[in-house]
Amino acid sequence: MLQTEFEFVLPKGFVDQDGNLHKNGVMRLATAADEIVPLKDPRVQQNQAYHVIILFSRVITSLGSLPAVTTKVIEDLFAADLDYLQELYNRINSSGASTIRAVCPKCGHRFEVEPEILGE
């Protein structure tokens, strides 16, 4: 059976407005819509880096006892936690290959390249 949800523990944790720390969460596999829909958002059109904020608010299904994981929650994460989530996202959503085979269109030389990682 295909695993579609993955539990995680943030290295630092999210501190809510009441001072409560939220570290345990669940991220689900991304769909094509999760990748595409944020591109229509004006915040992404103004700043491509915001894509990851909207994307994570869609694929993180729970974080501690928060009622919802919103873009504001993702915006307020510590940088170390955002980095951790980007690595987790890339790991669970990759095809398993760390390189892609390519062919030079001019000379026909075959080589391998590493794909661009989300958030880098």
Explain what the structure shows.
The protein is an alpha+beta fold. It has one domain (5-113). It is 32% helix and 26% strand. It is built from five helices and five strands. It has helices spanning 32-36, 42-46, 51-59, 71-75, 79-93; strands spanning 5-15, 21-28, 60-63, 100-103, 110-113. The strands form two sheets. A three-stranded antiparallel β-sheet has the order 1-2-3. A two-stranded antiparallel ribbon has the order 4-5. A hairpin with a 5-residue loop joins β1 (5-15) and β2. It is globular, with a radius of gyration of 17 Å. The two termini are 32 Å apart. The mean pLDDT is 89.
Question: What secondary-structure arrangement, pairings included, does this model have?
Answer:
Blueprint: E1 5-15, E2 21-28, H1 32-36, H2 42-46, H3 51-59, E3 60-63, H4 71-75, H5 79-93, E4 100-103, E5 110-113
Antiparallel strand pairs: 1-2, 2-3, 4-5
Count of DSSP-assigned helices: 5
What share of residues is helical? 25-40%
The quaternary state of the protein chains shown equals single chain
SS-based class: alpha+beta
Dominant shape: globular
Main sheet overview: 3 strands, antiparallel
Provide the domain count.
1
- Order of strands across the widest beta sheet? 1-2-3
Give structural attributes.
120 residues, alpha+beta, 3-stranded antiparallel β-sheet, 5 helices, 5 strands, 32% helix
